[in-house]
Amino acid sequence: MSRKAGGKHVSVSQMTTVRLMMPTDGNVLGNVFGGAIMRYMDEVAGIVAFHHARKNVVTASIDRMDFYAPVYVGNLLILKAAVNYVGKTSMEVGVRIEAEDPLTGTTAHTGSCYLTFVALDGNGRPSPVEPVIPVTADEKRRFREALTRRRMREATLGRKKE
Amino acid sequence: MSRKAGGKHVSVSQMTTVRLMMPTDGNVLGNVFGGAIMRYMDEVAGIVAFHHARKNVVTASIDRMDFYAPVYVGNLLILKAAVNYVGKTSMEVGVRIEAEDPLTGTTAHTGSCYLTFVALDGNGRPSPVEPVIPVTADEKRRFREALTRRRMREATLGRKKE
Amino acid sequence: MSRKAGGKHVSVSQMTTVRLMMPTDGNVLGNVFGGAIMRYMDEVAGIVAFHHARKNVVTASIDRMDFYAPVYVGNLLILKAAVNYVGKTSMEVGVRIEAEDPLTGTTAHTGSCYLTFVALDGNGRPSPVEPVIPVTADEKRRFREALTRRRMREATLGRKKE
Amino acid sequence: MSRKAGGKHVSVSQMTTVRLMMPTDGNVLGNVFGGAIMRYMDEVAGIVAFHHARKNVVTASIDRMDFYAPVYVGNLLILKAAVNYVGKTSMEVGVRIEAEDPLTGTTAHTGSCYLTFVALDGNGRPSPVEPVIPVTADEKRRFREALTRRRMREATLGRKKE
Amino acid sequence: MSRKAGGKHVSVSQMTTVRLMMPTDGNVLGNVFGGAIMRYMDEVAGIVAFHHARKNVVTASIDRMDFYAPVYVGNLLILKAAVNYVGKTSMEVGVRIEAEDPLTGTTAHTGSCYLTFVALDGNGRPSPVEPVIPVTADEKRRFREALTRRRMREATLGRKKE
Amino acid sequence: MSRKAGGKHVSVSQMTTVRLMMPTDGNVLGNVFGGAIMRYMDEVAGIVAFHHARKNVVTASIDRMDFYAPVYVGNLLILKAAVNYVGKTSMEVGVRIEAEDPLTGTTAHTGSCYLTFVALDGNGRPSPVEPVIPVTADEKRRFREALTRRRMREATLGRKKE
After folding, report:
1. pLDDT digit string (tens) for C83-112?
2. What was the ipTM of the complex prediction?
3. Which residue of A130, B55, D100, F101 pairs with B119 in a disulfide if CB–CB is 3.0 to 4.6 A?
4. Chains that touch E (3 or more CB pairs under 8 A)
5. Cα–Cα distance between C70 and D127 in angstroms, integer?
């Protein structure tokens, strides 16, 4: 996989967003639906991928997500998203989700997830993306781990996916 | 893991639902968001788990999902969901998602996913669920595969999750 | 009214869909609005008509509907819809609506309704629809009753509506 | 059916409301769904019934509605609603719906409909409603026609519904 | 600022609209968000401006708004809007907002606000608007006050804004 | 107005949030409604005030807002909010809003606004808020300007509002 010269820093597109959980996000007991959380996660991760690629993106895959703790209507959902790794036309975005009780300030780790987006050109076909440049130790670790995940998946599939 | 006598057939709670994809489900180019699809998937799978358990349920985990083909605003999303396996207080629900162009009747396989739900008692604590009884060859295969997934996860985690 | 050869079975397009009633569907006491139920009913019936005609459809009329029992936020709305009768460019779709308390499994008959849809061509003008073939005794009875309704309406109006 | 002394004029609760039709109200071609129109109609009629009764109300029935002309996303939906008739615990509300192209000011009669609401006491049981006093010739005609509709329905049903 | 001959009366476009406050409009305690009220206010004022201009309009400014009293989910929001003043391509619309408890009929003045809209031609550029003709004493006072506000703003800005 | 010892830094509660503008946020031409922008602005500002006060808050007033540039469906709305000033029970939050075309990365200043929130205790009555501590030169300037606005308003009203 050849690399274009240049590339963008992770910090250019990374983002933290906060959403107030509303009655439409949960059941009658006030538990926010897992699917509602994934809807917000995909929106935020998609904005990060769009910001990195400056091209339209579509979700290609969403990795396993475990919900460690319940989220309630009235909580604030805090979503922290950054580009971990960039392939030729795809990007892995990592999202960490926390739920905060705004009255107490207590936050709980709801879950974390990796999403893969593919950049599209004007005809809706996969289109090259500028590389990402990890700078901090954390960014470099996430880059390496994403690369490992990618290689394991390719090995499992017995074929290159891009 | 002990079993209560009895149990319910897969067919009692399995369900097919169809949803028309609306402008709020997609971007300005008409691509339905992966997160919107997962929102609908979690709702349908949650109803199936609720129907099996006859108790409130919350999403504990959502497995990796690959989106094989784009879904467009104006398509019909067809969601087929069934209980694959039941643990002591948890259920694995499998969902197969197809997108249909209602003008031509052409359908494409959008993706498939496994979701785990935990049943809750009136105090919001995990609560026992009746076993599921697989009857057809397909149901038995899905039961075995879900059990394998569960054991692999437990091995990976080095601890029993339930 | 001439018939094209062929036609489609009722079973090809008939559909059962389930929707979880959300806080936005009802008033502050938790009663689901009659209008919210009709919104879901029209959507499901429209999908059935679309599936039969494989053409865009618009609602031409909705028959009287009596709400036999209250529906509450948190209930599951079960909508069963099928094509009863097909005219030259229009279709009558019958919908039976039940509400289920998902905790107990108790269902109540909310109401039943007949909707007429007109198929449209690419210019938005009424366009011919393939006939429907009733097979079971129930389907044949619903076909005859729909035809009777149609004739009574034409007699009342003193003109053929199609 | 005994009457309480007094009563309220039709004009006290009658109402005209205007709603801008949004992309979520229609299909991808821009046709507003019949069910979306009925959702708005039921909301407006319910407010009129609530204003007359000063008690919570639920929709008991919605009469046949014919859609005379298409409504498009971007149109203004004009809903004119008034109490036609009051039984012991129920009210018939009539709604006339027009669609306006806001650029040209052209309006078309979309349809008209009668809805019956039942007033509820604090325990959710039918509760007496103050009579309505028709004053104008139109109000008196609508009162008589509603009474006729009611009697015909009772005759058909072979029983008093209230 | 030259005037076209003719013009339209305030009464032609003025409007009163009522909206039921839903769970999505407020927080978990049932307080309707100030922003939700402004969303409804802008929609109603925009319809009034559209009705006066018979051209697409966009919001150019919204004046200071004080919320005098809380509005609760389940309340009816009553919005009274009228064109106060018309510039060459802009219109000031005044809105008075009241909240009503539908059970008691008690209304409270929530707040009042002035919004300025600009009419657009087919290319999205400001486009001339017919003058407004104030007739009643109230309409004439509101016209004068709007003109004063406009002149003060122009003085403050040290430039003509239209 | 006495001050409690301590207080919180502006940086503790300040926040930047990004929202993708959807078809429901705008008209059929794709112009996002001014009211939709104010809805998002009030939500974000309310979260900032909630974070500072750690008490429920309600919007007491929203200052004049001028929309400098159009926002389109498909744009990203970037909202930057911080507490400018804290009174005894109220907080002024300033919000700067930009719109970004995600394809080009071009951003335009949509507008800026000041919102006042009042903190409430468990009985819904105004409740004391910890002071805010401006640190940077910008924070100190915004604090002074907010204080000036407050004094001018009190002078105009001829009474202290808190």
Report:
1. 999 999 999 999 999 999 999 999 999 999
2. 0.91
3. B55
4. A, C, D, F
5. 16
Lowest model confidence (mean pLDDT) among D75-84, E44-53, F3-12: F3-12
CB contact residues (below 8 A), chain A span 23-62, against chain C: 23-24, 27-28
Question: CA-CA distances (angstroms) from residue B92 to A138, B18, B141, C79, E42?
Answer: 34, 21, 14, 26, 47
Specify the pLDDT at position E62: 97
* Whether A74 and E27 lie within 8 Å, measured CB to CB: yes
Q: Mean pLDDT throughout D102-117?
A: 97
- Please tell me whether residue B110 adopts helix, strand or coil conformation: strand
Window 68-97 of B: residues touching C by CB (8 A cutoff) are: 76
Q: pTM of the prediction?
A: 0.92
With an 8 Å CB cutoff and a minimum of 3 pairs, decide whether chains F and C touch: no
- The CA-CA-CA angle for residues F37, F43, F44, to 5°, reads 90
Encoded tokens for F94: 């300033």
Neighbouring chains of C at 3+ CB pairs under 8 Å are: A, B, D, E
> What stretches of chain D show up as alpha helix (H) in DSSP?
10-13, 34-53, 137-157
Search chain D and give the residue with CA nearest C66: D61
Q: Quick one: which of B62, E38, A102, D110 has its CA closest to F46? A: A102
Provide the shortest C-alpha distance from residue D86 to chain F (in Å): 38
Cα–Cα distance, A72 to A101 (Å, whole number) = 9
Contacts of D27 in chain C (CB under 8 A): 56
- Do residues A65 and A113 touch, judged by C-beta distance below 8 A? yes
* Chain D residues touching B101 at Cβ < 8 A: none
- Please classify residue B159 by burial: count the beta carbons closer than 10 Å to its beta carbon, then call 0-12 exposed, 13-18 middle and 19+ buried: exposed
Class for domain C3-157, per CATH? Answer: alpha beta
Q: Which of B8, B11, B19, B24 to mutate to test the interface with C (most CBs of C within 10 A)?
A: B19
Which of B82, B70, B72 has the alpha carbon at shortest distance from B41? B82
Answer whether C touches E (≥3 Cβ pairs < 8 Å). Answer: yes
Residue with tokens 């060859």: B137
The answer to whether the beta carbons of residues C124 and C118 sit under 8 Å apart is no
Question: B127, exposed or middle or buried, with CB in 10 Å at 0-12, 13-18, 19+?
Answer: middle
Q: What is the pLDDT of residue F33?
A: 97
H or E element that contains B98: strand B90-100
Identify the closest residue of chain C to B50 by CA–CA distance.
C102
Share of chain B above pLDDT 90, in %: 86
Q: Do the beta carbons of residue E127 and residue E121 sit within 8 Å?
A: yes
Please say whether the beta carbons of C69 and C108 come within 8 A.
Answer: yes
Summarize pLDDT for A105-147 with one digit per residue, the tens: 999 999 999 999 999 998 999 999 999 999 999 999 999 999 9
One DSSP character per residue, A2-26 reads ---S--EEHHHH-EEEEEE--GGGB
CB-based contact B128:B53 (threshold 8 Å): no
Of the candidates F54, F102, F104, which has its C-beta nearest A103's C-beta?
F54
Q: How far is CA E4 from CA A21, E54, E89, E118, F89, in A?
A: 51, 15, 12, 17, 51
Q: What one-letter code names the amino acid at B50?
A: F
Nearest residue on chain D to F26, alpha-carbon basis: D22
List subunits contacting chain F, requiring 3 or more Cβ pairs under 8 Å. Answer: A, B, D, E
